[in-house]
């Protein structure tokens, strides 16, 4: 007795249900099937003629005679082979195959025995399943009345003796419903409303594994994205039988069962608890070592769902042996398997004992390797796991030893991970906000710094921590801000001053305080300093206003310069004449004041650089005040960096906290400027 393979009716699932599985997270096993190849000499017209011939035979072979039944069986078999070729499926439908096939699904008259019992029907069901591979044919088949026939066929086992033919018929009927419902919400609803779910559930009690698997697959399709069907399935008490199916020796059976259980468990926390109480935990953990990677994936997903119920369940899962196979799955060549095992471990790692267990079983290294994954969810789960593992002091040495810190420093966050972290900064609990901002200050790439710390207010969080009363928080914020500053620029933190500017017009060294050609004299501490208007007017605004503006000095020959020492004035003029000067630390502050007063910017920056080199624990407060009064931006930034870098030594000073609060607005302004923001200080 020749039978087409029972998997043919299910081959459309891979395409039609792909989106639904992605949205609900379920994994559905599909069986590869052969595709009928066109012989080179067969034209489309030849194939079309063959289709018409077989449909005609089906329409004319409706009696219960042995000859008609054999003819119909052969026609169905040939047509099923043709239907495996997607190129001519539309033609098969256009030739009227659907009504012809449905005629052979009618139940026999009472007391009438048909030759080739169930075999003709099975062949017709296989064709209908193949035609339903295209969504546009699903509704046509249903509108032709297929559902009523299919539901009737599912009940045949109640009136017919068990046989291989009946097994094939039931399997094909379930597969046909599966394919018709895949991705079609209206058909799912109709099957549920017209009573199609109970007979599928009844197949779980059938003695053969094939109808069981097919029924599970059909129920999965019917329940995906359809809560009414989910509720109907649950009311039929399917969980105990599904749990038993998890232990089946047949891979298809336990793979279908774990997919249905996963879909039901994800329905609600209450349903997750029911699934656990049905005894599914240990069978699911055993399936983590299945030879089928799709079954492993769904088992890992279930473990992650189970672990969310409560803290005790996390411990029980680890005690029952789930951690080693999950860690093995992190190394799998299948990206989906790495993703789902990462999800499961990310839920288990919240327990401190599991943190040690994951590390002990070799989980740190594969998790670190996944930090560089381009798959967004994989990187996110791995990052979370490493973060939680690092919370446990028993794991810190191993994380460092295996290069975990460097991997975090080298890694770039994917868009999804960064988006999630930014969401935590904006809407997370206060403690979570602090953790995320502190970590990102050390880890984020330079490309992401502005969006994190300026656009999403991360900088304000750090400054709030810096000025808080908690010493540890102040220390962490100081370290984070200093790290952010150093990583935001390639120059030394003290080398923030450009070289001295060269005047646009200058005289040489020999004209400094030289009466030759002098046309203006400055009186400093009772001494005359001979100068030249051309050098002063060309490049310096303060002198231009003094000598060529509305000041009374415009016509004066001797101009008094009060409040400046002779040596300081001479150095300033030397810079004006030559563009360079050696700034002595002893005179740097006085020279800075003079340069600020007369707007000699190049000299001012040189003085700031010299003073910044001398910042110490004892003078940082005074130098910050100096920078503020002189509007010396480079010196101010150097003081800020010193305050951040030397937190441990400065934090014991009685004035340090007051100074930090005063400096806080300037810290924000400094980092906004450093990170390239045009936002004004608030």
TrEMBL record:
UniProt xrefs under Gene3D superfamilies: Leucine-rich Repeat Variant, Potassium Channel Kv1.1, Chain A
Protein topology in the membrane: Peripheral membrane protein
GO CC terms: endomembrane system
Disordered: annotated segments: 1-27
SMART domains named among the record's database cross-references: ARM, BTB
Repeat positions for ARM: 195-230, 362-404
Statement: the UniProt record of this protein carries the keyword Repeat: yes
Subcellular location: Endomembrane system
Protein name from the UniProt record: BTB domain-containing protein
